[in-house]
Design a protein that fits this description.
This protein is α+β, with helices and mostly antiparallel strands. It has a single domain, classed as Cathepsin B, Chain A, CATH 3.90.70. The protein is about 25% helix and about 15% strand. Strands 1, 3, 4, 5, 6, 7 and 8 form a seven-stranded antiparallel sheet that branches. A two-stranded antiparallel sheet has the order 2-9. The longest helix is centred in the middle third of the chain and has 17 residues. The protein is globular and about 55 Å long.
């Protein structure tokens, strides 16, 4: 897909999102794998459109729009990270949802929390045979959250993230520094997803990434316009807007993608809302 083709397609269809100055190469960044019992991504796209249709007659959410980055002028969302060249998006989405949930739970938008994606991916996922690249790359959100529930994930300083397959080198006292969750909750309808985000915190979502998503530069909600499928990706939902008809997502591709690392995506688009996962109570290390 060439950018001039995308620009022409956006103009012809009348979609208003902008093309980024420097599109991201997503081919080594999209590592979402469906969990057992979860539909393949192609079916998730159909399911998302069906759920959107069903939501049209549903009761309205607690509030018509909610953005965890701006709740009374304060943000409950931790900063944008960059997974770089590794299929570790699930680890980043899992850490982001736990970090954000902890801030909401503790009513602490300024709470310092930065969890180790490296420990989650290079220790736990790698222990299951997952890698940064190739056919063994990527992971399942349920497995990531199950690991945080069972053993927890330590702070970033315990095992700082760099991209590329590497040995597990977490600090020796990582267990005593680990943050845990008591469980996960599957969100299977638009009302449930919105109520969760409005009252409990962020949620993990998965989506099919197409070539044009790499070039998304904000300005309006993303809708797929042009390009082939690349693969599955995990992101963190941090808000929604019913008047605008979109979700607000936190990506893990650095601040140069989208809207300073965040993005807006239309309801029912790319399977984004075929199902989401929230986390129950977060337990900080004592």
């Amino acid at each position: 897909m060439e950018l001039y083709e995308l620009r022409r397609a956006l103009e012809e269809i009348g979609v208003e999102w902008e093309i980024a100055n420097q599109p991201v190469d997503a081919s080594t960044r999209i590592g979402y794998l469906p969990s057992e019992g979860v539909e393949p991504l192609e079916q998730q796209e159909t399911l998302a459109r069906d759920l959107l249709d069903q939501s049209l007659g549903a009761a309205p959410p607690p509030v018509p729009a909610h953005d965890l980055r701006d709740v009374g002028g304060r943000s409950y969302v931790t900063p944008i990270r960059d997974q770089e060249q590794c299929l570790s998006c699930v680890a980043f989405a899992a850490c982001a949802v736990v970090e954000g949930t902890l801030r909401v739970q503790e009513h602490g938008p300024d709470l310092e929390v930065d969890l180790s994606e490296a420990c989650l991916y290079y220790c736990v996922a790698a222990g299951e045979g997952r890698t940064c690249f190739g056919e063994t790359g990527g992971w399942q959100p349920k497995k990531a959250l199950a690991a945080i529930q069972a053993d927890g994930v330590p702070d970033e300083a315990c095992f700082p993230y760099t991209s590329g397959d590497q040995a597990c080198s977490a600090c020796s006292d990582w267990r005593s520094r680990a943050t845990r969750i008591t469980g996960m909750v599957k969100l299977e309808s638009h009302p449930a997803m919105k109520e969760w985000v409005a009252t409990r915190g962020p949620a993990i979502a998965s989506m099919m990434v197409y070539e044009d998503f790499q070039a998304y530069g904000g300005g309006a909600a993303y809708r797929h316009v042009l390009g082939n499928e690349i693969g599955g990706h995990a992101v963190t939902i941090v808000g929604y807007d019913d008047p605008g008809g979109y979700w607000i997502l936190k990506n893990s591709w650095g601040e140069n993608w989208g809207e300073a690392g965040f993005g807006r995506i239309a309801y029912g688009e790319c399977g984004i809302d075929s199902g989401m996962l929230g986390v129950d109570t977060v337990i900080s290390p004592s």
